[in-house]
Design brief:
Blueprint lengths: L2 H10 L5 E2 L4 E2 L17 H91 L3 H11 L2 H4 L3
Antiparallel strand pairs: 1-2
Amino acid sequence: MEFGARKKHLIHFSCSHMCFHLSVCMCKYVISPKDLNLNFFSPQDQMCSRLKIRKAERDKILTYKADAKKESRDLLNQTEAERQETRAVFRQLRQFLKEQEKSLLAQVEVVEKEIARRRDAHVARLSRELSSCGEKPHSERHARSLRLPRHKFLFL
């Protein structure tokens, strides 16, 4: 078979049998790489080659897209977990604050009762003193103040 026949055979050869990257023919007529002239490929062969390149690019893009979706889904899951954790922490804080409020209000109530008890005791003591003194308290106090030194008089 001469070169022209090989060339003609190569033109009609389907692109599925041709490996363009290695420049070898996979048919029964073996052509050496130096016999191949890449300028004589048909437009169909060139288009087939471009389609293979585009398919490889498309596969890369689809892989990247799938990876991006997975990463996005993972990040969304992570943020949801953090949101749930934050809610749990704030739920615990609210519970703690409610307990603190109850405790402090109970302490305030105890202090208020103690103040009221002391006030009532003081008023009762003053009432007893007043009733035991009758009309004399003013004159007795005046007489006593005359007998006391000046610095003690100020504290009556």
